Amino acid sequence: MAASSASVSSERRVLVVSPGWIGDAIMALPALQLFHAQHPGAVLTVLAKPGLLPLWELHAAPQRRCAVTGTWPTVAEIMRGGYSAAYLLPNSARSAWLPWLAAVPERTGLAGHWRRALLTRVATPPADAARQHQAWEYAAILAPEAAALPAPELALPAAARAAAVRILAGLPRPLLGVMPGAARGPAKRWPAARFAEAAKNLRDRHGGGVVIMGGAGDAEACAAVAGGVGAGALNLAGTTGLPEWAALLAECALVLANDSGGMHLAAAVGTAVVAIFGVTDPARTGPLGARCRVVQRSAQRGRAVPRESAAAGAALAAVTTADVVAAAEELLTGGEPHA
Length: 339
What we know:
Blueprint lengths: L12 E5 L4 H17 L4 E6 L4 H4 L7 E4 L3 H11 L3 E4 L4 H9 L4 E4 L11 E2 L11 H9 L15 H10 L7 E5 L12 H15 L2 E4 L6 H11 L3 E3 L6 H9 L3 E5 L2 H8 L3 E5 L5 H4 L6 E4 L14 H9 L2 H12 L7
Parallel strand pairs: 1-2, 1-4, 2-3, 4-5, 5-6, 7-8, 7-10, 8-9, 10-11, 11-12
């Protein structure tokens, strides 16, 4: 009979296979924090794509982090770890295949992608409507008895904080962060011109500077926002590593963002966030934090959205600059959430 999560003893080595995206990894943090609290003596390793290792370096739960490389080198690395249990947070077949090939005796995950035969325990997502969020799916794997989820916790290194202070030294406060990019492309991107308009409006009301952030793939959108904002805008697209990016977000009084990994990162460092959603469902993938507001006009909501979607484009276009500015003002002035 397969052991449950509660059977992991303090003497066992545990492997957690990370989701592949920044946002998904951050949504997994509450469950991992619960697991760590329930099993404080367990030796915990996170297996992640190389680009996500810097994120996991900011989290206290894993004692060790290792990168997914080729199939057989990764299998060999897992075998060297001597793990007695593996928790598979992605739904992919490969995330189950690797620990199976490495003969890890206990393998827990959701049933997706025809991988049930590779698991020794199939986790069941909660059916409760109040637990729709993806964070609860990770809890079903790592902490199935959880009654509540903590907020994600990230610890920013002193070097990253110092770097952020140096980078932002020329800008007046308060700082407004703007992240116009999203990994899923146009289906999740509010128009850059509206980001610029909203940022200018808020700067005119509150003063301060505008910091525009994103990865190298967001350079075009970030440049458009910077050009639209004009004086007092600093475009940092593609210029910082993940720890510095997190530290820059922590310096902001407020961040405007699409449904993206950056949105989740800003919320995880405790910054107020206005998140613009098209047709993705914030009940499932919205930012985790009390200081977050979602702006959305579409009644059509789903989980999987293609990169090019006329419905998503129309839903994003329906969100006005006034909508975003109103949500930002609510957070900046400490107002109550809208009904």
